[in-house]
Amino acid sequence: MAEYKRKKSRILIVGAGEAGEMIAREILAHPEERYILVGFLDDDPKKQGRYIFGIKVLGSINDLPDVVSDERIDEVLVAIPTASGETIRKIANLCNRAGVEFRILPGYFSIIYGDAHMTQFKEIDVEDLLRREPIDLDIESISSYIKGKRIMITGAGGTIGSELCRQLASFKPSLLILLGHGENSIYNIELEMKLRSDSSKVETVIGDIQDSMRMDDVIKRTKPNIVFHTAAHKHVELMEKNPLEAVKNNVIGTMNLIEASKKYGVEKFILISTDKAVNPICMMGATKKVAEYLVQIANKNSKTDFITVRFGNVLGSRGSVVEMFKKQIEVGGPITITHPDMERYFMTISEAVQLVIQATAIGSAGDILVLDVGEPIKIVDLAKDLISLYGRNPKSIKIDYIGIRKREKLCEELFSQDEEIKPTRIPEIRIAVPPKIDETYLIERINRLVEKSISMDYEGVIEEVKALIPTYKR
After folding, report:
1. 60: burial class by Cβ within 10 Å (0-12, 13-18, 19+)?
2. 276 in catalytic set
3. Has residue 265 been placed in a domain?
4. What burial class does residue 302 get, using C-beta atoms within 10 Å of its C-beta: 0-12 exposed, 13-18 middle, 19+ buried?
């Protein structure tokens, strides 16, 4: 019986640098394999027209569609380890226009002949999904606000909390107090902090912010100068199903920390809020809006400066849409999106934490600080970009539109219509000045909400939230 000979794939390498040369060397060293190297593309004019191992650099990246057609290319290998998301998107679009498959490869090519998954080839950098340059705030200039201070971080084992620990450590606080409910996550960040060469003194506290006596004791004993309050329940669907827990954590927990901070002379208290607290229609957003009210009220007759920082969606955080999309891509799809017009404001974990740290320097009592992250991004575009970053044609992964979920907006907002927007000395940060509030009414209603929650009155909690937050309807 004649031996079956599989058709060899004609290969074009994008990138004629060291990584491209390494790939070419591997292909040429194994002529028995299923690859035929046809040429290179590179944007460096000095490389164009040159020969590498006898294989010509046929032009620039913009020439890709013509080269694919003229040379009957079957597959494009992208060998630019430092390529930005913008460059990858450009190459992906050109490959899609040319109707050719492509893969993104690292600088090491020992796995070229395997069928390993693309996640083994290139680590996805969430910054590549922003469709803008990441914002880099000058946090070095505020080191004097942190150096020598005793800093408490609630939710220290979470995505934002743990990154806060990392960035704050470099400013030499006298003590980092890592407070969290989950022992494993707190243990992990404590271990990481101890391994750092610039590590400050660290104290870990396992405690529930819903426990008022515990929070009073912790703040009394540890004496923080600054409290960063990141602990919260943030999952929209879960909080809709568990409204009592949303109230107990996001409202009562915040209340407990505020009271203890006022009582024991904390200098600054920074609440981490969310764009879902703007005209909220979900329980998570509604309870975070109540937390914003609590901060606003707390500034009256207090030596503590209470400040709010409001985020959009944080790329790469636990439970983020990016993590879900990655898992769906890795199994070949489909990707599930609620609506083709769904869009969100996105920021990176680093951007979010820089904003929080800046709040200690530029924030005054009652301020709501918001980072200007540009235009919102359509979720479907985010999904397609992520597919491309995996080295796949966006058309090769099916996208299913499953319908808008209850309590979900097509577009989130960073400011409400009744908030005045003011600039700060940092162009990327703005202040949302909330309208005057009826404190007496709010305090009365919030106290009722707390009572209903403690007494496990499900319907009562819903009614009190609706009374406090007119946009929340159920």
Report:
1. middle
2. yes
3. yes
4. middle
- What is the distance between the terminal CA atoms of the chain, rounded to a whole angstrom? 72
Q: State the pLDDT confidence band at 317, using cuts at 50, 70 and 90.
A: confident
| Residue 157 covered by a domain | yes
Q: Which of 89, 123, 157 is the last residue of a domain?
A: 123
Helix then strand then coil, % of the chain, to nearest 5: 40, 20, 40
Q: Which of 248, 276, 384, 452 is catalytic?
A: 276
Take residue 100 and report the two structure tokens written for it. 């050719």
CATH number, domain at 341? 3.40.50.720
Full residue range of the structural domain in which residue 449 is found: 146-379+407-468
Residue 197 banded pLDDT, cuts 50, 70, 90: low
Token pair recorded at residue 354: 């820089």
Q: Is residue 133 assigned to a domain? A: no
Residue where a domain stops, chosen among 92, 123, 154: 123
290-309 mean pLDDT:
93
Q: What is the chain's mean pLDDT, rounded?
A: 86
Q: Which residues face 399 on adjacent strands? A: 335
* DSSP state letter for 267: S
Residue 361 tokens read as: 């320097």
Q: Report how many domains make up the chain.
A: 2
Query: Does 243 sit behind a cis peptide bond, omega within 30 degrees of 0 on the bond before it?
Result: no
H-only helix segments in 136-242 = 143-146, 159-169, 183-195, 212-222, 236-241
What length is written for the chain? Answer: 474
**H helix or E strand, kind and range, residue 78:** strand 75-78
User: With bands split at pLDDT 50, 70 and 90, how would you rate the model's confidence at 207?
Assistant: very high
> Is 184 a residue whose pLDDT tops 60?
yes
Residue 223 within a domain: yes
